[in-house]
Amino acid sequence: MTGQTAPSIDLAGIARWLVDHGVLDGPELGAVRQLAGGTQNIVLRFSNAGRDYVLRHPPAKPRANSNRLLEREIRVLRALAGSAVPHPAVVAACTDPEVVGGVFYVMEAVDGFNPTVGMPDAAAASPEIRHRIGLEMIDGLAALASVDPMACGLEGFGNLDGFLARQVSRWASELESYRRFEGWQGPEALGDVGAVGQWLADNLPPDMQPGIIHGDYHIGNCLFAEDGKLNAIVDWEMATLGDPLVDLGRLLVSWPGQGEPKPHTMRVTPLNGFPHPEEMIARYAERSGRSLSHLRWFQVLACYKLGLILEGTHARAQAGLADSATGARLHRSAVALLEEARNIITLP
Predict the structure, then answer these.
(1) φ, ψ for residue 163 (rounded to 5)?
(2) Taking a C-beta distance cutoff of 8 angstroms, is the pair 200, 296 a contact?
(3) CATH 3.30.200.20 fits 11-108, yes or no
(4) CATH 3.90.180.10 describes domain 121-345
(5) Is the bond preceding residue 261 a cis peptide, omega within 30 degrees?
(6) pTM, 2 dp
(7) Each residue of 123-181: pLDDT tens digit?
(8) How far, in Å, CA of 91 to CA of 102, rounded?
(9) Identical fold at 11-108 and 121-345?
């Protein structure tokens, strides 16, 4: 966390809105600080009348869909109220961007640590706690997969028709769209992307059991208690409806294997004690009751999708629209992800 706030946010206007809607006792916001880890939105923690809150607001230079994504995040978090999925509760939300220049919402502050930022002494010293962290992530994912999206009010939240079949063309089109960024070196630097896409198209699972997808499920989007319990899954802006195995595939490709971490695996130390992927897969099968016969397809899809998303920042950086060091780092991760996809494909 930092002690600075983003000057582009109309905090006074947000405070007035919260007072007018009965959330705050007065407009004074105490201990305002920006939370580390978020890149797509501004995330601030503040206090009022002895209670802590967290605010999410579009970035200083919002994307074209920033407001829409926050609206979707608000909707899915409200839908999860009362479920077994650990998540922060929405306290209040303003979906009219004219009020302060963007959609925003305030949620309850959830205490806990994120292992990619730092671990408390107990977790750093205990392989058992780190083992629990991995299994808690699986249990949270299985709980999400068990939520009936229609029963909790998420009808129309995502297009389930042909969901899996659309994935390759959807992300291939995203990659092709980067040609609009002058200076981008093109998809050739990622290796044979087309071969990965073709394998996905040729090995499409015949059916799916629909559910809610978080969309970016990895250890960096979770908060844990000191004993390793999962306190909350955060950053729901990519949530949609589809096959929840998309989230499991995403988690597994970011999970460290044996030896040195890869550019796309989690940045956590120490690593010993975290459960092996095979144990996590078995746990998910047991807790969710879902068939994992096509899990390899979802792992390849996760590499393909994430790699092409990350390459977008590289393309923007080469056009002078994003930080060059960040673009180069994410390009290395994209290359590694596509290579990992090809490795998974060739497994016996």
Answers:
(1) -55, -50
(2) no
(3) yes
(4) no
(5) no
(6) 0.91
(7) 999 999 999 999 999 999 999 999 999 999 999 999 999 999 999 999 999 999 999 99
(8) 17
(9) no
